[in-house]
What does this fold into?
Amino acid sequence: MILDNFQRKLRQEAQLWRDEGLISSSQHQQIADRYQFNKLEAVTRERFVFIVIGIGGILLGLGVITFVAANWQTWTREVKFILLMSLFMSTAITGFYTWREPTLAKAEAKKSQEGKRILGESLLILSAFILGANLLLMSQIFNISGSASELFLAWGLGVLVMAYGLSLNSLGVLAIVLVQIGYWIGWGDLWNSPGELTWARFMVQHMPLLSWLLFVPLAYFCRSRWIFGLGAIAFATSLQFNLTPLPLLSSSDLAPWVASFAFALPSALFWSYDDLLFPTVNYRLFQPLARSLSLVCFSIFFYFLSFRGQWQSLDYGYDQANNLRYVPIIDLGILSGLAVLQWLYLLRQRNNPPRREVVFTLVVITTYLAFLTVVPFWHQAITRIADLGIFIFNVLLGLFSWGLIQEGLKLRDRRPFWGGMLLLTLQIISRVLEYNTDLLFKSLVFVLCGSALISSGLWFERRLSAASSSANKNIAK
It folds into this structure.
């Protein structure tokens, strides 16, 4: 749509330039051939046809749904089964061939039909939703008992198979969302009503490992940073909620080293991640995103461990002795082995002596991981160091924020600069609100933080503008 608007405006401007004598007729024809002005009307006509087809398809679908609802009670189970499967298969097959035709046309150097591709992908997404409705209706027709967690997990796995088969980003994102909905429902069931082990409970217990094994390869099939990022977030969050390492002193009788691994493992895995570990991959597509996620994990863990309440004893009021106590340790062992493998590869991949900045960054990251591992373990297993632990992680959070600010200034990048500024401001405000301070002091802190953010932001933007102007002048010379 944006490209079409650009072409239309360019066509109008080119005609105006020709009429004013700024360009010749031959130059106008060259521009018209390059930007395919003669195909604009065909594209518009094709888009209109597909809009009409889409509206007609919606009305047709509503008619079919109304007809089915009117006769649903009178049909046998076999007829319902055939009808539901026919609806799913017809939608999926139609969507597949409609989506596949523009791809083949592009491969054969023909005109790309964007409207057909979008319509086909929409039908495939619709078939994914029909799959979920089929699962629900089948369980009711054949009196199959199951929980909502099992429904969403089975639905998500079905869409995941479709995403692997078609290498389609939208289906991959939908699969991750559905699996995560099933996980959160199942996680609540595990805490509230522990019972016999089922396949859904097994998936919930091993969701950290399954997220890594199922979603990361899918990201390479689809070449999608969205899928990789969502899969990594699913891994990190499920690991924390399955192990529940916070607060450090609770009624859980898990081994004291579990919390240390829960804090350090996500950052260690993300920072050492390298696409080249896969034998068939020869490019680094997701490594920058993985390292950004590692920094996000550091900031989150440092921030939460800077609160006093996370170092104090807390009784949940119910027994944590259930299926989530020991099974996640299996995931910890496998993922820790993967992290060790990645770090060995990271340290051995450089044949030449690394630059001083790279060595310094590696030392800083290793130091952060060491504090995340040692300090919680020391507090749980050896002796209580609550005050010292709070002080250490407040210092680490401040240093981390300052490092982001310096990185933003050095690279002239807004994201690390503003990330560090906001994180430092959040730390100051959190400490003020956490401890008993009077309203006058809180008001002063808020005013100072707001003034510092405004002044630093204006100074940083002026610095970027000055650097950009200087670069343009050098290019002009």
